[in-house]
Amino acid sequence: MKLNKADANAWIAKPPPDRPGTLIHGDDAMRVALKRQELIANLTGPDAEEEMRITRLQAADLSGDKAALADAVKAQGFFPGPRAVLVEDATNNQAKVVLAALDDWRPGDAHMVVTAKAQKPSSALRKAFEGHKATACIGVYDDPMSRADIAEALSKAGLTRVDPDAQAALNDLAAALDPGDFRQLLDKLSLYKSGDETALSPQDVAACAPASTEADPDEIVAIVADNRVERIGPVMARLWSQGAQPVALCIAAQRHFRTLLTAAADPGGPGAGIGRLRPPVYGPRRDAMLRQAQHWGTPRLEQAVHLLTDTDLALRSSARAPAAALLERAFIRLAMMGKR
Length: 340
Fold this sequence. Notes:
By secondary structure, the chain is α/β, with parallel strands linked by helices. It folds into three domains: 5-139, Rossmann fold (3-Layer(aba) Sandwich), CATH 3.40.50.300; 147-208, no CATH class; 215-339, Zinc Finger, Delta Prime, domain 3, CATH 1.20.272.10. Helix content is 58%, strand content 8%. A five-stranded parallel beta sheet has the order 2-3-4-1-5, sandwiched between helices. Helix 13 packs across helix 15 (283-316). The relative contact order is 0.09. One of its GO terms (biological process) is DNA-templated DNA replication.
């Protein structure tokens, strides 16, 4: 059976008993893995790992041992309870083996959970599960988490009291992060709020949200945007010692000032512009960018973007001036421009 999103969620949350198997396919391996993990946990219950009621097989190995899947499905364990056989990274090359195991399945056998990359409607593997009356075919797509998905994830993490502003920040983060990263964030927040009875606040979210992967470029760009001229030299020296590249720093500055320009030029004002940014900004960084957009204003931000574009071109040309000195001078000019 081919299941829509609602039916798929219901199947995963409460797998029907005595069904042969489930195919979970999608391009995002993390999303597929999360669905597979949830399905197996709900299917086999607690202590399944310790009781050896879960068997894992690599699909590629089935080509050399065609009986391995059928044997695993039929095998009876020492401990009672539902059993599952997980077949990971399946392709159409294993379709015949999987289909044979489905045809030979009988009540009491293990439930087959098969994961695969996104399958076309014409694929033999997908056809096998969609055409079987007692199996499920679940497509996992790269759609952002819905509000219902977010609410369910918060409930599972034990975060039942959430400030409205914190909820808005979490909604933005759910749209920007992979589901696995978002789940890790909720786990971190759950530990962070352990023993704290107050509602989850935006400050809590900001404290636990994943740090930027470009912390050093962000640091110097924030210094320039805040007009802290005296900090440019020391921070730039540290960046050069760490092997930072002038062009990369210039690109980071261009991206930041273009974002500020987009926010400042919004018809609803910088506040509305910041709220429309994608990917979203949140917490202290959002406050800082709003303050910077309001301080610089559209005309000066246009000048700043123009200066950074000229600097980028100069850095990529055969100019004789040292690239590090050229960029540092541009950053100082920018910081001074913002003071006027």
